[in-house]
Design a protein that fits this description.
single chain, mainly beta, Immunoglobulin-like, 2 helices, 47 strands
């Protein structure tokens, strides 16, 4: 029996509807996951020049060969007027030869006498200066890139961008740049060796490319591509294209970078002064290119004397402070090893969980003072592999430390893999392994995670991890799920995190254990269209920590935040929080005050004013007050910077806390001062002075850096730590320790 004509028509309609639903569903999924067709992006062709055509990198585009190059222009404002042409014209030209890729940049300016140019120190953030930025996505994967930045004085900053989310400005490579201010504005020439980059092997390559220009006096940002306010230069998925790179060979075959350190340390003892010879030699980095996309680094007896000192912090909470990594060997390619909860946007705040935190290698925490100083542990040798292999992002580190005092020799290992999915998403895994000498103690952690970006605005993130520690069994899991929607006007976050009592990532960081955290926050950021106001931010949310075993509430914070960003770049912000803390054991908040067990309610508030960093003098002032456990606390924070001229700048941070408790009162303050005097962009000096009154500790750090050629340095470093214990006399107190070191390194590239 055959169906009648009406049934056939109905069946066809049903089939058509099913196909339409499936097609629409697939299209939405593909669009959400990044499979939708990439919008048209601007392109520029790279023009190859012959071996007898040379470019002298002097910041003046006077070579006739520049006339061969195509021109990238038509920059569009992101701020203050989204979508409008940049207020000042910008032109970029791209040339290359067998060794270098060259960028010729012309930043026209109708008022060249107002160009901001003050910074000579490499890797400064250029908050005060006009700036031009290049983002090079050499693998054209729309998520990772090299960043190069220059100001009108020719001062350089370079960085690595990973997964469109993290930027590592501590990464340094060899490249050259010069700039020149003239009657039309300012010009710059940049030469980047292909050896300093990596890209896939191909006869003809296309790279992702974006440019950004920042005019500080106007508080203006303009991009060549992807100027939508929902994105930044980190979003390589919005970048344009650099085409016609032919027969380019990137990456080093081999780099050997030995170093020599000479100097001494002095640690006074009861019987006199103890001097120790700190001289040593080693291999700072031995870099080997395994493939076009995979690099191995080795280090032998590394020394980190030149690393910047940590800023002093006061800790009036019951949880650990968080200090960022500053050692170069661990920073290069560090983004691949990120595994854990999101790092807070505010400097000094700590993440809830990181499975790998490289400061655990070669640094042992010493909680003698409020600054949580770290004792350096000698590192025998180490190896690191980073890059892409068989379609996976791959990273591995193995380091071996020597014994010191009661700390035995220890081996640290970590392996991280990430598989790119569709547009901007990935799934991945990590394994860490720490074994003490003789196998007397071990700690292993494994985890899987995933980031899924839907419709370019929605992030779904999750992780699950388990630890295995000698002497601890069971109750050793952690997991997190997070949803975040973010645009220029609206941001909302939902998060749930669980960390078991015995979860123990000894190569990582955990803020607090045996908790279940629930968080919700929504932020609305309208642009009211008022002449003097650029954007208003209104945020409100709640954060709860429950004991994972008993379910009882341990911490609660609900609060509101209101901020006004002016067109001039200033900020005024108000905050009010209602908090609760349950102390299940006594909390020694200060050497003179201990808080008893019990539940405590807080109500605190703050007013903060921040002036625009593009001025010669800028800063931040905040007053916070309210209840604090069984008493009250007043906090006054100041943070100021003055750029006197291009050679000299001064920074002062001061935090003052006056605490009145029912069982005691105290004043806690910390001061961080930085003085930078730079003769040229090759001869740089910095002086850091720190003081905290909780333990009466004073620290002086002086560093001279002579960059005698790109990538190679001479350092002179002096450290002096003093204690103002009553038993010591004299204006500068008693010497705790001092070191004087001279370091020389030189790289050999093959």
């Amino acid at each position: 029996m055959h169906p009648d004509k009406h049934s056939l028509i109905l069946l066809d309609r049903q089939t058509l509807a099913q196909k339409l639903v499936i097609t629409v569903g697939i299209t939405l999924v593909m669009a959400g996951m990044g499979w939708s067709q990439t919008p048209n992006r601007p392109e520029i062709s790279a023009v190859k020049i012959s071996s007898d055509e040379t470019i002298r990198v002097d910041g003046i585009l006077d070579e006739t060969v520049w006339q061969k190059a195509s021109v990238a222009n038509n920059f569009v404002q992101r701020d203050p007027n989204e979508g409008e042409p940049a207020s000042e014209k910008t032109e970029v030209r791209v040339l290359y030869d067998n060794k270098f890729i060259y960028f010729g940049i012309t930043c026209f300016d109708s008022s060249p006498e107002l160009i901001r140019a003050t910074e000579l120190a490499r890797d400064d953030k250029f908050d005060n200066d006009d700036e031009f930025v290049i983002a090079l996505d050499t693998f054209h994967d729309h998520r990772n890139a090299y960043g190069f930045s220059i100001n009108p004085l020719g001062t350089r900053m370079d960085a690595l961008i990973t997964d469109e989310t993290s930027i590592n400005i501590e990464w340094n490579e060899k490249w050259d740049a010069k700039a020149n201010i003239n009657e039309q504005g300012w010009e710059a020439e940049i030469a980047i060796p292909f050896k300093s980059l990596r890209s896939p092997k191909s006869e003809v390559q296309t790279w992702g490319l974006n440019f950004g220009r920042f005019i500080r006096r106007k508080n203006e940002k303009s991009f060549w591509s992807g100027w939508d306010r929902d994105y930044t230069l980190l979003h390589l998925s919005q970048a344009g294209h650099l085409t016609d790179l032919k027969q380019v060979q990137t990456g080093l075959k081999l780099r050997v970078k030995p170093f020599v350190v000479g100097g001494f340390s002095q640690t006074p003892k009861n019987s006199g002064s103890n001097f120790k010879n700190e001289s040593q030699v080693g291999i700072e980095d031995l870099k080997v290119s395994l493939t076009s996309s995979l690099t191995a680094d080795f280090t032998i007896n590394p020394d980190f004397a030149q690393a910047e000192v940590d800023a002093a912090q006061l800790n009036l909470t019951r949880f650990s402070l968080f200090f960022p990594e500053k050692r170069e060997f661990f920073l290069e390619g560090a983004g691949i090893f990120d595994f854990g909860t999101e790092r807070p946007r505010f400097e000094g705040s700590a993440p809830d969980l990181l499975l790998f935190f490289s400061r655990r290698i070669g640094l042992e925490e010493n909680k003698v003072s409020s600054q949580q100083e770290n004792i350096p542990i000698p590192i025998f040798a180490g190896a690191k592999i980073t890059g892409d292999i068989a379609g996976f992002q791959f990273g591995a580190i193995n380091m071996h430390t020597d014994n010191k005092d009661s700390i035995p020799q220890t081996n640290y290992g970590v392996v991280r893999v990430k598989k790119k999915l569709l547009g901007r998403s990935y799934i991945g895994g990590i394994l860490t392994n720490k074994i003490a000498s003789g196998g007397e103690h071990y700690n292993r952690v494994g985890g899987v995670d995933g980031n899924f970006v839907l419709f370019n605005k929605l992030l779904l993130k999750g992780l699950v991890a388990k630890s295995d520690t000698f002497g601890k069994k069971g109750n050793d899991l952690s997991h997190q799920g997070m949803l975040r929607w973010e645009t220029d006007h609206f941001r909302t976050v939902l998060e749930r995190t669980r960390i078991d009592e015995n979860f123990n990532p000894e190569m990582g960081f955990v803020l607090r254990k045996n908790i279940i955290k629930k968080k919700w926050r929504s932020t609305w950021r309208p642009r009211p269209g008022i002449d003097s106001i650029r954007q208003v931010t209104m945020s409100f949310g709640a954060e709860l920590f429950n004991n994972q075993t008993t379910g009882s509430l341990e911490s609660r914070k609900t609060g509101v935040w209101l901020g006004i960003d002016t067109e001039a770049g200033d900020l005024v912000a108000l905050r009010a929080d209602d908090k609760y803390e349950l102390l299940t054991k006594e909390f020694k908040v200060h050497p003179t005050a201990t808080l008893p067990l019990g539940g405590y309610n807080f109500l605190d508030y703050s007013v903060r004013v921040r002036t625009y960093s593009g001025r010669k003098a800028s800063g931040e002032f905040e007053v916070a007050g309210g209840t604090y456990y069984n008493g009250r606390k007043l906090t006054i924070s100041t943070d100021g910077e003055i750029d006197i001229n291009k050679h000299f700048s001064l920074m002062v941070e001061h935090e003052y806390n006056k605490v009145n408790l029912s069982n005691g009162s105290f004043v806690a303050r910390v001061i961080n001062t930085g003085l930078n005097y730079n003769l040229t962009n090759k001869l740089l000096t910095s002086t850091a002075i720190q003081y905290d009154n909780v333990y009466d500790r004073f620290l002086l750090n002086f560093r001279l850096n002579y960059i005698y050629r790109p990538g190679d340095d001479i350092f002179i470093v002096y450290n002096d730590t003093r204690d103002f214990d009553p038993t010591y006399t004299g204006f500068l107190g008693g010497l705790v320790n001092r070191t004087l070191l001279v370091k020389f390194n030189h790289s050999f590239d093959f």
